[in-house]
Structure formats: C-alpha cells, structure tokens
C-alpha cells in the first residue's frame, strides 16, 4: 500500500497567522477566546469567540480576488500558501494532473450569505453583487486552491459539520492510497463568526458565555472559533525521492456513523472510529502516545468521548495523554480538525503535548489522562486526532512520526 | 387555571405530542417524553409565546436558578419571568 505523508502545513486561526505562531501559542497554552467584534453584537446573547484578529484582507489579496473570496476562501488561500511554500512539491505538468484538493468546510461562504441577506432583507436592496453565488458556494475555496496552484486532478469539498476536516483529510489519503492522485492539498476552512452564524449556534443553547473548559467539571459549553488548516500530502516514496522534510505520516483513518441522533453523540460511533483508525494504521494500543480529543466542552461530547477512550484503550488510558486544543483556538467547526492536526504534529515532532487550558476541576465522568493548562513533555511516536460531528459522522486520523 | 398556566400546558403538550388534558403540574418533562433537546425546543416556544428571555444553557441546566424539573415549576418560572421582564 502507498504510504501517505505530510510535507507542508499552513494555517491562520485566532492563535496565530501561520504554523510557527500557532504552535508557539499552543506550547504556551494561550487562550485566544475573547469578546467578539461583530455588527449588532447587542442583539446576541453569546458575545465571545476565537476570532482572527488584526486581519486586513486588502493587504493579502487584490481587488478581483476580494470580489470572489469569501472570508473562508481567504483563510484557505492563506493557509495553503504557507503549506505549499513549505512543501514546495515542484509539480511537473504531468504531475499536476495527478494532484488535487479535498477541502472540509461546514459553513462555506456563510459570511457572504449573511451580508447579502442583510442587503436584500434588511437594507431592502434589490441588487446583489454579480459574484454572490461563486463567492458563497461551499466548493469555492477548493476551486480557488486548485486554480492558484494549477492542481488539475480530483478536487472537491467535504462537509460533515464539525468533522469536515478529518473527513477531508481521510478522503485525500484514500485518494493517494488508491492511486487516483500522488499529491493532495487538504484540510479545512470555516469562517462562521458572523451575526447569523453566531445567532444560529446561540439557539441551540450549548454555547458558553464565559470560556471553553473541555473535560472540566465546571464546563459551560462550546466557544466558536474560525480559521483554516491546510496540508500538502504526498506519497512517502515521492517525498523521500525529492528529499522533502516529512512532518508526519497519516498512517490511518476511520470513518463511522452513529446512525442515532442529529445532535447527541453515541459512544459506539466514537469507539468504532478510534478502534478503526488504529486497525487501519496497524497501530497497537500501547503505541498511541497522545489523543487530540474532539473535546467541545459540551456535557454530551466530553462524557461520551471520555467513555469511548476508556472503552477502546482500557488500562492504557491511565497513561495516555489527552487534550482539547479547542480551549485555545475555539471550535473552528469545519476547520477544527485541521488546526488540531497541528497539535498532533507538534507532539510527534517536538515531544510537546498542547494543553487543555482554562481547566479548573476534575470531572469524575471524564476518567482520562487529561493534559491540563500546561504543556506536557513526552516522546510521542503515534497519535490520534478525533472528530465527532453533529449527526453522528465521525472521523479519526492516526498519525505517526517518520 | 391562570392564562399563563394554560398556555404553558398547551406548549408542553404540543412538544410532547399529547393531549393538553393529559398535562398536569406534577409531571416531569422527561416522563412526558420531552428529552434534553425537547426542553431546548420548548424553551424557545415559551420565549416566543410570552416574549421573554429564559436563561438556559443545556450544558449546565442547574446553573441558572430556573427550576424546570416539573410542569408546575416551569409555569412558576414563566410567571416570574413575565412579571420581571414585562414590568
């Protein structure tokens, strides 16, 4: 079987405008959650989030690009530029036909929808910008990535709510394994921190109004973030042949469905996804040295995920560090798994496990080896990254140091 | 029966998909088949019906001083919120 490795990584999120800044923040355990800066904030009851700050799109993109790039597309382009610069895959014309994009997103061009609904319903305008549709479509960012870097193989968007990134990355790995492409750009991007996006989440009554404290007895719910994480995947053989710096191997993945409830997670689906990823990677329980948890800080997720980890890992879970970096960068929805993958790469490369910050008190219903508040040093050779979406669509990635 | 009590009973009956005549103050929402998401939906319906804000976070249902344990306590909570928010 063709082995698949990561040779480039890029991001923009509330913790940092690139990978080094994000990893610095993760190492320092910095929480990027703060007051939201949005129009009509007084009409929202949830007023915190992990927003990308000091961001000036006009300094990154030209007029024509801004007319076509929703905020989520902008984030994807910025993250991809960093990943492509690092990987420098040097694709020939023939190779570009065997290179593609699988991007995860949940909201797609939600901000564009929000602004245009505002224009027609609130401001009573009878005209919208001609590029409203190409700007808002959920496949726009994947298309722009393929256009910018001339990737002419398979490209599409995967949308599975909060698991979109992991499903996208798992799919990109499968495409390379199956021989349909040799190089893939993949990850996730979402920018749902607009008035309508926050208002919709607010309605579900699962959002915290103070901060995000995953697996903590005093948790009060989730906090939304935004951003993108993009990776260059290629075959191990190709990466070695050209002497690329290999960040990690995506050794395995598994996707499962709870087939149970549209919002409430089921333990069985999470267990099967973790166990499946281990099998797919050919990894034993004892090899896994870190789990980047889904860890949303909702009661439903944290208890179910803890129980699933216990069930799958048994006594190994006593000494298996788990953390939820959502406590720092917020829940970036369709991008969250891709940003969390950076914590996995940091664990594998630097032996540093990013903490679950804001944590105060042990929850007896979360019997896991939680890395709380301070980064833990530990040699990690393999790790898992969990994503369990609304609707019971689960995707777990298994990474290995190369 | 007060107007507020009657309206709360109607809303909970609609949520539980039972006849309003089968709703009484001593009942527990879960026993009516109203699960945690059903509670969130019913709270939304109550807010809309009475034009009130009901402070409720599904992750910490005990955190607010709102007693949603029985139909009667929900009626009392709505009466209190209507009085305080419409004064």
TrEMBL record, chain A:
Gene3D superfamilies: 3.40.47.10. Its EC number is 2.3.1.179. Residues 1-401 form the Ketosynthase family 3 (KS3) domain. InterPro entries: Beta-ketoacyl_synthase, Ketoacyl_synth_AS, Ketoacyl_synth_C, Ketoacyl_synth_N, PKS_Beta-ketoAc_synthase_dom, Thiolase-like. It comes from the Bacteria. SUPFAM superfamilies: Thiolase-like (SSF53901). The keyword Acyltransferase applies. PROSITE patterns: KS3_1 (PS00606), KS3_2 (PS52004). Pathway: Lipid metabolism; fatty acid biosynthesis. GO terms for molecular function: 3-oxoacyl-[acyl-carrier-protein] synthase activity. Keywords: Acyltransferase, Transferase. Belongs to the thiolase-like superfamily. Beta-ketoacyl-ACP synthases family. PANTHER family: 3-OXOACYL-[ACYL-CARRIER-PROTEIN] SYNTHASE, MITOCHONDRIAL, POLYKETIDE SYNTHASE-RELATED. This is 3-oxoacyl-[acyl-carrier-protein] synthase 2. It comes from Jannaschia seosinensis. The gene is fabF_1.
Automatic annotation (TrEMBL), chain B:
Pfam families: PP-binding. Signal peptide: none annotated. SUPFAM superfamilies: ACP-like. Residues 2-82 form the Carrier domain. PROSITE patterns: CARRIER, PHOSPHOPANTETHEINE. Keywords: Phosphopantetheine, Phosphoprotein. It comes from the Bacteria. InterPro entries: ACP-like_sf, PP-bd_ACP, Ppantetheine_attach_site. This is Acyl carrier protein. It comes from Jannaschia seosinensis. The gene is acpP_1.
């Amino acid at each position: 079987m063709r082995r698949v490795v990561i040779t480039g990584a890029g991001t923009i999120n509330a913790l940092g405008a690139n990978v080094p800044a994000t990893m610095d923040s993760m190492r320092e355990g910095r929480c990027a959650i703060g007051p939201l800066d949005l129009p009509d904030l007084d009409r929202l009851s949830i007023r915190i989030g992990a927003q990308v700050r000091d961001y000036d799109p006009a300094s990154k993109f030209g007029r024509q690009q801004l007319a076509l790039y929703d905020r989520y597309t902008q984030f994807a382009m910025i993250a991809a530029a960093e990943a492509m610069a690092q990987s420098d895959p040097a694709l020939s014309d023939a190779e570009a036909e065997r290179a593609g994009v699988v991007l995860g997103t949940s909201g797609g061009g939600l901000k564009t929808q929000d602004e245009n609904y505002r224009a027609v319903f609130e401001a009573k305008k009878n005209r919208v910008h001609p590029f409203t549709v190409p700007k808002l479509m959920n496949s726009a960012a994947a298309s722009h990535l393929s256009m910018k870097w001339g990737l002419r193989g398979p490209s599409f968007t995967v949308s599975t709510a909060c698991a979109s990134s992991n499903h996208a990355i798992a799919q990109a790995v499968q495409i390379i394994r199956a021989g349909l492409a040799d190089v893939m750009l993949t990850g996730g991007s979402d920018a749902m921190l607009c008035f309508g996006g926050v208002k919709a989440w607010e309605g579900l009554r699962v959002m915290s109004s103070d901060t995000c404290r995953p697996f903590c007895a005093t948790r009060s719910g989730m906090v939304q973030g935004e951003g993108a994480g993009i990776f260059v995947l290629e075959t191990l053989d190709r990466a070695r042949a050209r002497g690329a710096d290999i960040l990690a191997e995506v050794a395995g993945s598994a996707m499962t469905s709870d087939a149970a409830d549209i919002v409430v997670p089921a333990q069985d689906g999470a267990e099967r996804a973790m166990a499946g990823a281990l099998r797919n990677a050919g990894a034993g329980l004892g090899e896994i040295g870190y789990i980047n948890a889904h860890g949303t800080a909702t009661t439903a997720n944290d208890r179910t995920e803890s129980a699933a980890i216990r069930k799958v890992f048994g006594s190994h879970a006593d000494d298996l560090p788990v953390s939820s970096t959502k406590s720092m960068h917020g829940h970036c929805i369709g991008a969250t798994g891709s940003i969390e993958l950076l914590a996995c790469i940091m664990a594998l490369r630097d032996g540093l496990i990013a903490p679950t910050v804001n944590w105060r008190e042990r929850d007896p219903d979360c019997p896991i080896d939680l890395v709380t508040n301070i980064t833990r040093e530990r040699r990690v050779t393999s790790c898992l990254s969990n994503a369990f979406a609304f609707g019971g669509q689960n995707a777990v990635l298994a990474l290995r140091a190369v | 029966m007060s107007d507020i009590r009657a309206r709360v009973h109607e809303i909970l009956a609609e949520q539980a998909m039972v006849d309003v005549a089968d709703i009484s103050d001593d009942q527990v929402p879960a026993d009516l088949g109203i699960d945690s998401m059903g509670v969130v939906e019913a709270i939304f319906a109550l807010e809309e019906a009475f034009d009130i804000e009901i402070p409720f976070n599904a992750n910490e249902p005990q955190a607010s001083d709102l007693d949603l344990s029985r139909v009667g306590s929900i009626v009392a909570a709505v009466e209190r919120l209507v009085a305080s928010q419409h004064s």
